[in-house]
Fold this sequence. Notes:
The protein has helices at about 5-15, 20-60, 70-80, 85-90, 105-115, 115-125, 140-145, 150-160, 175, 180-195, 205-210, 220; strands at about 230-235, 250-255, 255-260, 270-275. The chain is mainly alpha-helical. The strands form two sheets. A two-stranded antiparallel sheet has the order 1-4. The longest helix is centred in the first third of the chain and has 43 residues, at about 20-60. Residues about 195-280 have low confidence and may be disordered. It is found in: Cell membrane.
Amino acid sequence: MAEHLELLAEMPMVGRMSTQERLKHAQKRRAQQVKMWAQAEKEAQGKKGHRERLRKEAASDRPQKRVLFPPSVTLLEAAARNDLEEVRYFLESGVSPDLANEDGLTALHQSCIDDFREMVQQLLEAGAKVNARDSESWTPLHAAATCGHLHLVELLIARGADLLAVNTDGNMPYDLCEDEQTLDCLETAMANRGECDPTSPLGGARGASSEPTAPQASPRTASRGPGPCRSCTCWTTSGASCRQGPTSTPLWTTGPRCYTLPLPTGSVRRRPCCWNTGPA
């Protein structure tokens, strides 16, 4: 491109040119401008590319900064989002389904709270412990029963959930449940599973193996209680309440009624599990 002083110097000469000569002169100057612009653009691109290469080289020499979370965090976060694909990826990568956070909460606990049935099924199929306990001894069944998620309660029971699991407050899933349908499901499951055995004063094999032996009922002692419940068939751990209302004294099951009896020294006070299956 011509300098400003050069253009001023040639103005007298241009003034003496004819119209055709002026046109040719202008075209020549324009061609020079385009050529010089293209050259400047090429040089600018070269400098920019050089700076970009230098920047990339410098970045490659620095360590990459990445935030990595432990598997327990990523698994629970994916489960909380109900992201089945991501959870499946973690499980197939070898991540344990029983990983828990600082409160002992597992992905199965979280899914039972959030009512994610498909996630619960996937975790159970991957080997998640159905009776996993958090820092307060809550099991997934406690969580599902408290929230009244009937279909999850049924699923957990089918997978062998402990119906008599007691948390640190002494509550079983039954004690925390307020939904009538879910309560009926828990009661039926306890009766069908054999947690309640009318032929054994301690509720079958479970009670006989883990609880103290109670005295045998006698006609005199049995008559001490009026039998407020119908068809009471078992004993449960401390915390359960009678369907006809909480009991204030230890009760013992003898046949179709509940009677008050003295318990052996050191025994845990209990309350019966009453199903009301028939008239007294």
